[in-house]
Task: structure prediction
Amino acid sequence: MPAAAATDPGEVSDIDLVKRSQGGDTRAFDALVTRYRGRIYAMTYHLIQNETEAWDLAQEAFIKAWRALPTFKHDAGFYTWLYRIAHNVCYDWLRKKKIQGDGEFDDERSEHRVAVGAEAAPRGDLAPDAALTNAELGSRIHEAIAKLSPEHRQVIVLREVEGLAYEEIAALIPCSLGTVMSRLFYARKKLQELLHDVYENSH
Amino acid sequence: MPAKNFRNSSTTFMKTPTDDHELIRWIDGEMNETERARFEERLKQDPALSTEARKMRALSDTLRAHMPAEMRVPHADYFNTQIGVRITQMALDDARARTTTPSWSAQLMQWFRQPWFALAGAAALAVLCFLVMNPAGSGSTGSMILSSYTPNTHVQARTYHDQNADATVLMLDGLDAMPADRKISGVNIRRSEVEPELASTTMYDDKGAAVLMISRDALGNPLLSPEG
Result:
């Protein structure tokens, strides 16, 4: 599971801040928000791919965390617990979006849309940074991630950004290990396809 | 899932979902020592698989380099402020929802010594506090000070609940001594309302008149209206 932010010596620990927050101290909770807002916002941003929505959802995650604080038992790290809440907030949002009907959530369709082993595999040497500036490449990656189905985007973020192990991803989503591996594989294939020209141009 | 063909310059391999899984488990370091050794031996024998593995790993490295685990939050101070406002609003809503008798508010009186605020203004002191009326079911009462702020670092704000007076008392330590002849008058704060969009709290007296509004300026510093 994602690790808590490293705290400087002398800095108030998460446990102390959480205990004070549980007692109704909003200044302690504000310190926790300040400590973790950057990581929670990055997670929601990568999953939602929209700055405004990501900002709102990150805020929603902290509000839900405040409400749920009485149930926090200290058996898991605060960030791990908060991370799960933020993930669920995003997932609910994506699910609602699917119900509203853009059909984007069709995981099977998305998986089969990728032509595995054909043109998806980039040709040439893999040195995209040499051809594009960092910012341009970042922008291309952002666009490509946005084109993934939400479920493919989800596993990519959990694995590549948060560095979760397969079992942790399976427990969080939740789904089987096989599903995690299939989604990761097809998500990467799709990204290779979408970023094909980036690699080709760098050849 | 059907097996897929992929072509190498000299040979055609049948690729299975198991191959896909092995490939990404190798890339993600999810194999044990034995599995990894076996797969790497296979990579030596299979140029097409080796190329695919190399390219997928490169993609993975590129993604990690361009998807930061931490990002700067736009308008970060406002982000925090809004959370504070919404928490206050929720507490107020909860308090209202728990109200069972019409007379509960009569039991909830907070006294603000208005000249203290005037004095605070003179001392360049601003105090931000959200007072939450919090009747607990059977009629017992309480208040919660959610936050306080003193720009003048020589002044300390403390609060406590005085059960005898059934009041929340705000103490400002560090101000200049008050002249003995200063007349002190009190204001009963009957209720407060939070405006999430304005990030402000307005306090009303027992006649329903607004006596004090606390908000924040563009820099996030507390503003009192009317000014002390």
About this structure: Chain A has two domains: 14-102, 107-201. DSSP finds eleven helices and no strands in chain A. Chain A has a mean pLDDT of 80. Chain A touches chain B through 55 residues (CB under 8 Å).
